[in-house]
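We both want to read discrete structure tokens more fluently, so let's practise on a single case. Would you write everything just below, so we can both look at the same thing?
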Amino acid sequence: MPTLSSSSPASVWDSVDGIAFGGDYNPEQWPRDVRLEDIELMKEAGVNLLSVGIFSWGLLEPREGEYDFEWLDEVMDNLAAAGIKVALATATAAPPAWLVRKHPEILPVTEDGTVLERGSRRHYSPSSAVYRRYAAGITRSLAERYKSHPALALWHVDNELGCHVTAFYGEEDAAAFRRWLERRYGSIEELNEAWGTAFWSQHYDTFEEIIPPRLAPTSLNPGQQLDFMRFNSWALKDYYRSLLAVLREVTPGIPATTNLMASSATKLLDYFDWAKDLDVIANDHYLVAADPEREIELAFSADLTRGIASGSPWMLMEHSTSAVNWQPHNRPKMPGEMLRNSLAHMARGADAVMFFQWRQSKSGSEKFHSAMVPHGGRNTRIWREVVELGSVLGRLAPVKGSRVESRVAIVFDYESWWASELDSHPSQDVRYLELMRGFHRAMYLRGVTIDFVNPAADLSGYDLVLVCTLYSATDAAAANIAAAAEAGATVLVSYFSGIVDEHDHVRLGGYPGAFRELLGIRTEEFHPLLPGESVTLGSGSLVAGRKGSVWSEHVQVVDGTTEVLASFTGYPLDGVPAVTRRPVGTGSAWYLATLLDAEGIDALVGRLLNEAGVVASAEASAGVELVRRSHADGRRFLFAINHGSRDATVKVDGEDLLGGGRFGGVVPAGAVAVVAED
């Protein structure tokens, strides 16, 4: 593993005045006269930070060992003269053609043995020693040349690591996987025990016998699959660390990051594990145009990013001004939607609002991806909205450095996500995020903000803790969650939680193994539901008449203090508990044994919030997104984002940072108010 310098780099926030605003800048795509025009347009828009050089390796080093920095020198100098800071990329996200031609062994290999060729991007394996050597070389050349440049504020290491290719199956990857396993387990006997290799004659005598979980006749060893997911997340992080080590050596005072893709769609990298190697958390997020509640998915992703950042301010490194280029139907954003999206990210902790990209490309795969400067130039709605956004962000400088307030936590664990969706489970319809997104949606609509936390996180600051489909749970995680209830929190655990340990070994004695004692229940047998099938919850309960889908089970109450709050109706589960509650210490532990419909989740959320004493950030009309950020000195800012088509009322007193003067209590349709509260 690379050795990193112990020097502490500066904060990127110290380099940029106010809220960071800008995007990916690709000047190599344009002639000099356009690049000069760009500077003037950036000043007009209020841009103060740009990511530069992400895909420029082929021009910076057109032939092995021959460098051309003249164009980048001029760009960096012009940006510095304009007062614009740069997140300078290592340029390693796409190896140049000469490198692939000379060393085709760097190319990634899929599980069926297919070699993924050049002609696109991200065409390399992170375990390739050859690629690492060349990537470190271009990184060192850039660091040495620009280490003292006044524009340099941040290193942008590679780009969207894990995008397109997340798992690597070549021979060099296999060797790296074996080395990783040997470090993890120490002996082949320990690995055999962890993987349960007595099953199907899978016993290994040496690590050299192990290969990645390539295409095979039927289902693969789940321990092998889970460890391979862990390995691939580690391998990409280790590659990142190898470049970071070069940057730390040459520029120890310059912070570094890479742009994550934390969202409800990105599963295969453990970003909580990555966070400690990033000086600032940066994230890319794109709306799915076909999603009628895309603003809620945005909130989920932004809250998750803030969780990865442990609540600290983070960077929105990329989002779009309007349409993207990669969805089946790339609809534009509606008037005002880009502003609402940008401020929603900021409300949820972002102190940087950046886009892909500055100027819309005239050629290449992303030419129809929107940008800050569209094909139509200045005389366009998008450009006018970009300039407006720059002005708005200038008025929101007092918010910088504040943190989001939340008293509700959702436990989020990438390894449990991976393990819960492996094959050969009771139901392939159990999706790790489905119930979690349902709870998040219900809280969002009620104006309650949620923090996403790792199972090992300190839960002492939360009044309500939700544990959704935490299929794989360590002893320490289970104890941490139980301690939160003992200390006074309302804790809810859902179905298919605590079933296995970190090796995917079932916790024997009845489900949900890790949480049986906490909940005072025991399940002998699961009863997963078929597609289209549902169960009904009985009358007289807090979710009376509501439907459940995907999952049910034969729950037994085994503790006299456990109360049944709702039961299933109808054969074969008639009268079987569906929702239970047990007093624990000064708190309580709830269990939910089915995936409730939206109305059922909302009713349950109302009861949980009432018990936990959690209320909305403010009183407001329906359709208003509410989030509060606050400084340690007591200054508080309420973001009220009206996604509806009618004017909305919000009860809060203070200064209207966007409109000026006192806030009048009304947020117009499609508009945003940010109130510095009295």
